[in-house]
């Protein structure tokens, strides 16, 4: 059983938790995290959602998931990365690229992390992920958000800003406001 902390539309904590799977009341939001893994060749690592997933089975995505009650956003992204890929990273090594608020009933924190391993090194979480591949960044940008590939940022303005910040991240920038 998974519980989430609840927030209002401005990300202020409501001081309550919510059981995953139950509907949220109007004005209640939970927090989710996503990481864009990038290598020195200008590629992004995508994982494929397991065919058992209720939403978007078999689609390619960036690793992520919901923040559990009591976790920080950084703790959650490190946990999700470990669970879904087997990769270990200190929570402080993630760079917060962008926050997208009020996407449905969810606030999103989108992170970047550099990693130069092989897709074959990924360990998949049964029922969550079943494949991984490196994709050139520009090819990913062209398909992200279309049939078969999820995009970490949904609204167009956020998406454009995300891509701008990824380019800056690749140039060495590690702090965004």
From TrEMBL:
Its cofactor is Mg(2+). Keywords: Hydrolase. GO terms for molecular function: hydrolase activity. Residues 28-164 form the Nudix hydrolase domain. It holds the Pfam family NUDIX. It comes from the Bacteria. InterPro entries: NUDIX_hydrolase-like_dom_sf (IPR015797), NUDIX_hydrolase_CS (IPR020084), NUDIX_hydrolase_dom (IPR000086). This is NUDIX domain-containing protein.
């Amino acid at each position: 059983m998974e519980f989430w902390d609840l927030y209002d539309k401005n990300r202020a904590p409501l001081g309550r938790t919510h059981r995953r799977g139950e509907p949220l009341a109007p004005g209640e939001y939970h927090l989710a995290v996503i990481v864009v893994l990038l290598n020195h060749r200008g590629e992004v690592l995508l994982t494929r959602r397991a065919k058992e997933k209720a939403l978007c089975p078999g689609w390619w995505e960036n690793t992520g998931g919901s923040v559990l009650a009591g976790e920080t956003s950084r703790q959650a992204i490190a946990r999700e990365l470990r669970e879904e890929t087997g990769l270990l990273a200190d929570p402080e090594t993630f760079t917060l690229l962008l926050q997208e608020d009020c996407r449905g009933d969810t606030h999103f924190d989108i992170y970047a992390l550099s990693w130069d391993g092989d897709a074959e090194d990924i360990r998949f979480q049964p029922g969550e992920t079943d494949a991984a591949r490196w994709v050139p960044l520009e090819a990913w940008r062209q398909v992200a958000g279309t049939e078969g590939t999820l995009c970490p940022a949904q609204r167009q303005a956020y998406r454009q800003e995300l891509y701008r910040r990824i380019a800056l991240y690749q140039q060495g920038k590690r702090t965004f406001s």
